[in-house]
Amino acid sequence: MNILISIVSLLIFVLASVPVHASTLRVVTKENAIREYCKFFSPVKLKVRYNDRLDAISKEGDWFRVRFKGIKGCIHKTAVEEKTFTFSGILGSRTQAASSDEVALAGKGFNPEVENSFKSKYPELNFQTIDMIEKYKIPEDKLLRFIKSGGLNLPQ
Amino acid sequence: MKKTILLLLVIIVSLSGCRGLEVKGVSKPMDILASSIVPVAKAARPISDEEEYYLGRAVAAKILSSYPLSKDTKVVEYVNMVGQTIALHSDKPYTYGGYHFAVLESDEINAFACPGGIIFITKGTINATRNEDELAAVLAHEVAHINNRDGVKSIKQSRWLEVVKIIGSKTVKEAGSERIPRLVKLFEGSINDVFKTLVVTGYSRSQEYAADTKALTYLSRAGYNPKALEDFLQRLYSQNRTSQRGILKTHPATMNRIKNVKKNMPVKTAAITPARTKRFNRIVK
Predict the structure, then answer these.
(1) pLDDT digit string, tens, across residues A127-145
(2) At the topology level of CATH, where does A2-110 sit?
(3) Chosen from A10, A152, A154 to mutate, greatest number of chain B CBs within 10 A
(4) What is the distance between the alpha carbons of residues A116 and B181, in angstroms, rounded to a whole number?
(5) Is B94 within 8 Å of A32 (Cβ atoms)?
(6) Which chain B residue's Cα is nearest to A123?
(7) The model's pTM
């Protein structure tokens, strides 16, 4: 009887502290894409936005194979935040609750509301030009041609 | 029997963190313990990528009040293509708002990496480079500062702790009208901290050396010749020994940077291709 209790308690203790396979990823960039293959410049299957939750299927190098809105594809690891679950997390532990709280707080520091108030205080600062700089984008096919024609390496 | 009770206690302690598990006399003290621990965890939270992005936008706007933006569309496109290539080969190809490269209309030799991903390079710096690989080297150094979050690190710790305190405080949440002015004041202070580091004092020596070392890696991964960074610094050193303007004012002694770059130079270095030389000469020269 004692042996059985020992084994059960040890199992619970280990499962409670060791993270098991992650199942959810949160998009941490303003926008990004789920691509057909796990590499840059691969065709885009679906656009994703900040805070979208993706189901992780597997990890391939620096990429995650994911599922979102029924579509499967790949997303780079730096575009998402991995939410690891522990056994205690599955049961709804306090660690998990604190983590969710942190996520909620993440947008409450320096955010658009604060920026807008700052802009009103300093109307002389040229945020329109900053918006213009951010809108400027090199099309992917053009960048790909640039890399290839320059004898450079394709990012993995 | 004692052993059984002890083992049962271990199980109870293991599960005591589980929501919904009501153990009389155990769950209540655990609640109190948890509520006293959580604020400390919140206070330790670093600045998020999203917050870094908004800070970087404001720092960039402030830099634009000192330097006019270049309207040379060909050069801007070229700088963006070289910069994006480097960013894709960096440790963090994606930031919250992405990488954006802009050219400043100034003869000064300087470049600025605003938190989050906006990178400014002056016309003077572009003109001081001799080939695409040297231009890539300058941009790789700035991308490395963003990867290392060096801009954000210049914010006074007490200021950031105050931000976290405000957003975590229930009383301030309730009195929402007070929250924004206080956050704006701290936002402004943080912008000034970063701006001062970028434009006036510069990063620490160790941050600069680390950015140079990472730049060598990014150049090598991208297929650029990492020796281009050494070549550029060497020329900067020879031509501006007595100058104290721009990059020379805010960066550690160029000779020490050259020594660090030489020490960390990758063994395999790619050659500069004629195609790169041709497009550089067509657009920049």
Answers:
(1) 999 999 999 999 999 999 9
(2) SH3 type barrels. (2.30.30)
(3) A152
(4) 11
(5) yes
(6) B61
(7) 0.81
